[in-house]
Every structure is written in C-alpha cells, then in structure tokens.
C-alpha cells in the first residue's frame, strides 16, 4: 500500500507544477498581479500566445483537478483527495511544455537551399536532381521575390520548349510562371505551435500555405535560415495527456 508520505509528495508535486503553470500564464499574459485567478489569466494568455490556446482545454481541466484537491484539503499538509502519480506526471510534462515549447528548428528543413534571381535554371535543375527538394526561395539581394517550385518550372518548360534554351534562362524568368504561392515568415524564436497556427489560419480562409520561411526576425528582407512545409509539420508528434483530458 502506498505510504502517506508518498501520497503527500504527489500532492506537493501536483501543486508545484500547477503553480509553475500559473506563473507561466502570468508571464505570457504580462500579468503582474500575483493574486489574479488562474482562470482569468488563462483567458488573457490564450489571446497572446498560441501555445496556451492549443492547450486551453487541458489547462481548464487542470483547474478542476486542482480545485478538487484543494477543496478537500482539511489541513495545511493533508488532502482527502490525493492525485494519482500518472496525473502528476502529466501535469509536470504539461508545465514543461508551456515553459519550453518545441522550437521550430525541431521540424524545419535547414539549412535552406535558396537561389538569387539571376541564378541559371540549369543550376537549379541540377540542384533539384541532387537534393530532391521541390521548393526554393528566390532572392534579389536580400529581398524575397518568390517561391520557385517544380510545378512552375514544368509550366515554364512546357511554354518554352521550342524557342528558348535553358542556358539563357534564370530563376527570375521562371518565377513569372508560378501561381500565387502563399508564403509566410516567422522568426527563429517561433515554436511548433506558432507554425501550426499559421497553417491553420490559411486553411481557415481556404488558402494553401506553401511554406513558412524562417528568418532571424521573421521578415522577407532577411535571408532564410530554415523552411517549413505542411509535410514538415506532420513530423511533429504532440505530447498526449489522456488522463487530464478525460478527467
């Protein structure tokens, strides 16, 4: 049988993790009032950070679990309702996830293969054959000018198969045959949940986001350090919290 000391330790671990989550919510919400309620700061943080919005329902469940414990506490160190160890493990993992969300670099393709607008098409085709990538950011100096894809190259080749040689063609020439490829930019400091939110926002408006280009500051006039496609996002396996979720 589990000792009273072990059960007490579980309660302390649960409360410590819950308090860390509360502190993290205050940080995300830029809330300096230490007495603000968990529910109130959760609502505020949700509007400011995607990592909180993604875990919003789980965090509400944590509140219910914590209330169930505290309301059955009959002394400063004695609980009638003690949390199960699996519940404690989950809330500790959730606390860590909020404190350190997975960085975008965990799924992004890097370094990025990109070209300048005057790069010969022959070199681009050679790179496609060697590297196997199907999307290449194109830059004029340090300004992003478009996303070159295999589809755009195919369209160009089909239209010019008789009258122009590849040696005379540059990335700039082929870009004019690209459709309106939607591209977004995020900073290196972004996390997985920022990536997910960006793709979801385009999907909500029934637009396909071809890629998210990662730069130092998340702007189009900086050279890329990484690139993320919807296929990259599929690599991410989110943590599961089945007990908290179904409590």
From TrEMBL:
Q: Which InterPro entries match?
A: CBS_dom, CBS_dom_sf
Q: Which domain of life is it from?
A: Bacteria
Asked if the keyword Acyltransferase belongs to this entry, the reply reads no
Q: Which UniProt keywords apply?
A: CBS domain
Q: Where does the CBS domain lie? A: 108-164
The record ties this protein, via Pfam families, to: CBS
Name of protein:
CBS domain-containing protein
Please tell me the species this chain comes from: Gracilibacillus halophilus YIM-C55.5
């Amino acid at each position: 049988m589990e000792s009273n000391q072990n059960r007490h330790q579980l309660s302390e671990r649960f409360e410590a993790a819950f308090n860390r989550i509360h502190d993290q919510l205050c940080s995300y919400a830029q809330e300096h009032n230490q007495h603000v309620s968990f529910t109130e700061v959760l609502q505020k943080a949700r509007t400011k950070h995607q990592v909180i919005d993604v875990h919003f329902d789980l965090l509400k469940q944590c509140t219910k679990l914590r209330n169930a414990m505290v309301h059955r506490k009959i002394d400063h160190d004695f609980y009638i309702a003690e949390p199960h160890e699996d519940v404690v493990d989950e809330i500790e993992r959730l606390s860590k996830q909020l404190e350190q969300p997975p960085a975008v670099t965990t799924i992004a393709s890097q370094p990025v293969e990109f070209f300048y607008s005057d790069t010969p098409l022959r070199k681009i085709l050679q790179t496609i054959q060697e590297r196997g990538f199907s999307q290449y950011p194109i830059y004029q100096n340090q300004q992003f000018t478009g996303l070159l894809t295999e589809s755009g190259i195919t369209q160009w080749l089909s239209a010019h198969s008789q009258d122009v040689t590849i040696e005379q063609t540059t990335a700039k020439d082929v870009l004019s045959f690209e459709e309106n490829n939607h591209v977004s930019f995020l900073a290196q400091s972004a996390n997985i949940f920022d990536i997910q939110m960006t793709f979801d926002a385009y999907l909500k408006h029934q637009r396909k986001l071809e890629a998210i280009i990662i730069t130092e500051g998340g702007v189009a006039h900086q050279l890329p350090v990484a690139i993320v496609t919807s296929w990259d996002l599929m690599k991410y396996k989110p943590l599961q919290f089945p007990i908290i979720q179904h409590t």
